[in-house]
Amino acid sequence: MNDTAARIEELKTSLRLQPHVEGGHYHRFHPSKGAEHVGARHAMTAIHYLLEADECSSWHRVDAEEAWHFVEGEPLELLIYNPVTNRLDRCTLGPLTDGMQAVSVVPAGAWQAARPLGAYALATCLVAPGFQYEGFELLAQDDPLAAHLAGLVPEISF
């Protein structure tokens, strides 16, 4: 096993990452799974999120803002599509060097997808107000928008 593969396995184990429905691996660390919250939605939730080479985060949207924070690995391309303006933004997250930023925020309701630009990328994703599965939607492959986005970003597969 090479150093990169060993690091990926170390991250999966130490961060307790599990397969994510949209692709990649994740672990929700805030609030913890056992945290009681009566009534209103949590103010914020947070996950560690890992994408390996040839994996992607499928097109999806959340009913709250989501901030992606680059942690380690190679750069990550975050794609944000606003259907109202028909605008696609490509953000490259990574170490603060030319053309990269460490953090990007996806507006509530915008479609988003991500892919690593190397062997792997680890990010922390914060959702506020807190993530709820009822406010999460994966883009269906037979949705007309899926064909449009596939034309704009063929690198993200369904």
TrEMBL record:
CDD domains: cupin_YML079wp (cd06121). Residues 12-139 form the DUF985 domain. InterPro entries: Cupin_DUF985, RmlC-like_jellyroll, RmlC_Cupin_sf, YML079W-like. It comes from the Bacteria. Coiled coil: none annotated. Pfam families: Cupin_5. Gene3D superfamilies: Jelly Rolls. This is Cupin domain-containing protein. It comes from Dyella telluris.
